């Protein structure tokens, strides 16, 4: 087993070696390949996890998992690693993991954005949104504060700058905390709080915050409802303009066996689902019910609430997010897609406010005290840094301190990482096991006389979801029906029937009510039957195949 600890974060070369180690030690379960290169030329690694002995991944239903599309959201890479570790460790001894890898496949991309993550994890870190390519039109010189590690301690903290007109003062409840001065308050010691950094072309008076030149947001660059930058910040010059995004889109569109997707982000401690752009009332009713069931199971296993992005996770009720991966997967690929926001420091501190975004605009000061108490009791002094003096090259005597944002807010602290990501493999295995799956019911040849036989081929969908997966896929004609075919050897001829027949979609069990309903029977819509009349000598073997892009392949023989 590769040496991997889930109480630390890995840079690109370390992550690569770990993934290569899994592929080398478990070649029957793990395949490693690159699906593209980042802007700076790093490989975007993809792990395919399935039991190769039972068939090729492309012929099995699959679940897509990815992480770290945003630069400083590095815990998602570890969540993906933890899933891989759980799969190889559990195969052969955990019944559900074994059944899952025998019959289905995972596609796992631990680090979509290796360039941005490398900046965040470097000895002198830099925080950007996604990739390192300079945003179109941002290559002009600007004045203002550039966020960076100015004292070389490997952290980007907060600068506390004395200013008689500053909006902040030291809290009397705890001198480490800052609180806003009252609207009419005067005569005290006040401060400005600024991100740690240097000021370009400082005039001694004004300190504008300079936006990062690397302003692209990969999760606004996907094709569905992509909008230009004047409507959607960070969207890029055109859909899939960024190689990292294009790599994901190319892979997903060339692998129609993907039946669902889940993208790990941080933070919030939430299971988010589409739509970002319209109300649940406009979602197909069956998809809404199925999303509800999947989310309920996710909450049961992880403790994270499952909510609609449109109804519960918008910064501004009048604004919507477009060009996001989960919307594209649901709308244009027709599969159930999720975004998981790992980690909630507020929840860790006992803050139960469910205003997931509004909390950052306004909350009681008692919440700040709760967070600091949590830090003191649980984080061994690593999360909130006591203020210490620093001679700033432009501002003079200031102080540095406050929250170590990368490892308390954007990601779990090292000692909390494993317990935060540990619940997810069970939900992801369950999520994949609900996918549609074709299985053989029967393949029978019945003699009709005079070397003529009726060949009957019956298949069934044993998955909980229908073969089309979503109602959206039916509406947009995104899923082909199940194709059944017969192959005849030399000397046999087909008297009746077509060599290939499209029998349409096969139902799953997710339509069933939760209790007994009178006058409603269990129709066999999960089964499909094809018959052919074949003329051939007795003992001839014909080959039968059923194939569905999302539900896999069944092969059988019938002896005449």
Detailed description of the structure:
- It is a single chain.
- The chain has 560 residues and is of the alpha+beta class.
- Helix content is 23%, strand content 27%.
- The protein has an eight-stranded mixed β-sheet with strand order 1-2-4-3-11-14-12-13, with helices on both faces.
- A hairpin with a 5-residue loop joins strand 1 (30-37) and strand 2.
- Helix 3 packs across helix 12 (424-433) and helix 6 (285-302) runs antiparallel to helix 12.
- The longest helix has 18 residues, at 285-302.
- The mean pLDDT is 94.
Relevant terms:
560 residues, alpha+beta, eight-stranded mixed beta sheet, four-stranded antiparallel beta sheet, 13 helices, 24 strands
How are the strands of the biggest sheet laid out side by side?
1-2-4-3-11-14-12-13
Quote the average pLDDT: 94
Q: Low-confidence parts lasting 5 or more residues at pLDDT below 50?
A: none
Number of strands: 24
Question: How much is the radius of gyration in Å?
Answer: 28 Å
State the end-to-end CA separation: 49 Å
Task: Present the secondary structure layout.
Layout: H1 12-25, E1 30-37, E2 43-49, E3 62-67, H2 75-90, H3 95-103, E4 105-109, H4 114-121, E5 144-147, E6 158-162, E7 168-170, E8 178-180, E9 191-195, E10 197-200, H5 243-253, E11 258-266, E12 270-273, H6 285-302, E13 306-308, H7 309-312, H8 325-333, E14 336-342, H9 345-348, H10 365-378, E15 384-392, E16 396-403, H11 417-421, H12 424-433, E17 438-449, E18 452-461, H13 471-475, E19 483-487, E20 493-496, E21 500-502, E22 527-535, E23 541-548, E24 552-559
Parallel strand pairs: 3-4, 3-11, 11-14, 12-13
Antiparallel strand pairs: 1-2, 2-4, 5-10, 6-9, 6-16, 7-8, 12-14, 15-16, 17-18, 18-22, 19-21, 19-23, 20-22, 23-24
């Amino acid at each position: 087993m590769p040496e991997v600890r889930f109480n630390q974060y890995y840079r690109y070369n370390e992550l690569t070696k770990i993934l290569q180690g899994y592929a080398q030690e478990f070649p029957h379960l793990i395949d490693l390949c690159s699906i593209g290169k980042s802007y700076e030329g790093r490989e975007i690694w993809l792990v395919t996890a399935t039991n190769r002995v039972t068939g090729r991944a492309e012929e099995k239903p699959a679940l897509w998992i990815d992480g770290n599309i945003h630069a400083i959201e590095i815990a998602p890479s570890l969540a993906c690693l933890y899933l891989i570790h759980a799969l190889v460790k559990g195969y052969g001894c955990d019944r559900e993991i074994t059944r899952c890898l025998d019959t289905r496949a995972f596609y796992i991309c631990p680090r979509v954005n290796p360039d941005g993550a490398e900046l965040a994890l470097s000895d002198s870190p830099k925080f950007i949104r996604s990739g390192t390519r300079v945003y179109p039109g941002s290559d002009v010189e600007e004045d203002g504060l550039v966020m960076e590690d100015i004292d070389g301690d490997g952290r980007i903290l907060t600068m506390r700058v004395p200013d008689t007109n500053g909006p902040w003062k030291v809290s009397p409840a705890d001198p480490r905390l800052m609180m806003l001065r009252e609207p009419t308050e005067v005569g005290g010691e006040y401060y400005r709080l600024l991100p740690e950094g240097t000021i370009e072309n400082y005039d001694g008076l004004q300190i504008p915050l300079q936006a990062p030149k690397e302003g692209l947001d990969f999760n606004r660059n996907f094709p569905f409802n992509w909008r230009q930058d004047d409507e959607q910040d960070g969207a890029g010059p055109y859909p899939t303009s960024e190689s990292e995004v294009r790599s994901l889109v190319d892979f997903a569109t060339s692998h129609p066996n993907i039946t669902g997707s889940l993208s790990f982000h941080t933070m919030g401690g939430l299971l988010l689902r589409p739509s970002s752009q319209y109300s649940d009332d406009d979602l197909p009713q069956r998809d809404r019910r199925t999303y509800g069931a999947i989310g309920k199971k996710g909450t049961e296993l992880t403790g994270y609430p499952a909510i609609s992005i449109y109804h519960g996770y918008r910064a501004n009720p009048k604004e919507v997010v477009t060009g996001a991966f989960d919307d594209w997967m649901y709308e244009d690929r027709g599969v159930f897609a999720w975004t998981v926001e790992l980690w909630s420091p507020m929840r860790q501190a006992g803050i139960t406010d469910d205003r997931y975004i509004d909390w950052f605009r306004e909350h009681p000061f008692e919440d700040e005290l709760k967070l600091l108490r949590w830090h003191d009791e649980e984080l061994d002094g690593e999360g909130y840094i006591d203020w210490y003096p620093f001679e700033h090259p432009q501002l003079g005597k200031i102080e540095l301190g406050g929250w170590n944002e990368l490892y308390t807010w954007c990601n779990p602290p090292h000692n909390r990482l494993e317990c935060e990501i540990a619940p997810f493999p069970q939900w992801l295995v369950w999520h994949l096991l609900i996918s549609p799956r074709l299985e053989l019911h029967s393949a029978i040849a019945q003699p009709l006389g005079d070397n003529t036989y009726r060949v009957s081929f019956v298949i069934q969908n044993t998955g909980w979801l229908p073969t089309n997966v979503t109602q959206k896929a039916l509406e947009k004609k995104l899923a082909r029906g199940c194709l059944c075919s017969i192959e005849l050897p030399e000397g046999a001829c087909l008297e009746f029937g077509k060599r290939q027949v499209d029998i349409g979609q096969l139902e799953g069990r997710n339509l069933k009510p939760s209790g007994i309903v009178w006058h409603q029977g269990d129709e066999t819509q999960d089964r499909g039957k094809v018959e052919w009349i074949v003329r051939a000598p007795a003992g001839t073997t014909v080959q039968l195949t059923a194939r569905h892009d999302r539900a896999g392949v069944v092969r059988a023989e019938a002896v005449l």
